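A protein record pairs a chain with a discrete description of its three-dimensional fold. The following entry can be read in just this way.
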Amino acid sequence: MALAVLFLAFEMAAAAVRGLKVAWPFLLALVLLAGAAGAWQIARTMQRRRSDAERLATLRIALAEFDAMDDRQFEHALRDLLVRDGWPARRVGGSGDQAADVISDHTHRGRIVVQAKHTRVGGKVGSSVMYAVKGTAGPAHRADHAVVVTNGTFTRDAMAWGDRHGVHWVDRDRLRRWTENGTALHEILALSARTRRARFRRAA
């Protein structure tokens, strides 16, 4: 009985070897095809990333384009501008965003939280927005820098309050410098390395 089982196993192994001899060209072709498909996919992904990086590196957006955007498009545009400036940003705006539409972590300058306020031409952003951003920047988002960006303007009280309490603001004029002239946001606002976090935490 044991001899018969051994003989059967030997025959099965021999049949498998014979089958491999016949099928190996097809198996090799499949392996090569899968490898080529994987390499093509990797090359395509790398090319797309290079194209995206090149596009963002020269990104310019006219104020008229901002005015024609909706809220979500405005947030995406601000995210792309931060990426252009070297901030690996992501859009987080939506229901329950706790006064943050875009967040980015910079290797040297820390975390920036951006609240986007898209308005009609001539619209103004008031102090209440600055209060909300100040209240959540530290405890909710652990921010080093908090910024409110609008395609409109700010009231005098909002700008003065923001200056006193470390909430940066970007109005239409600063937005033009950022997006049309290509000046980095951290240069416009003179953002240094991790200077706000302790202030926001103490306020919390």
Notes: The first strand starts at residue 89 and ends at 91. The two ends are 82 Å apart (CA to CA).
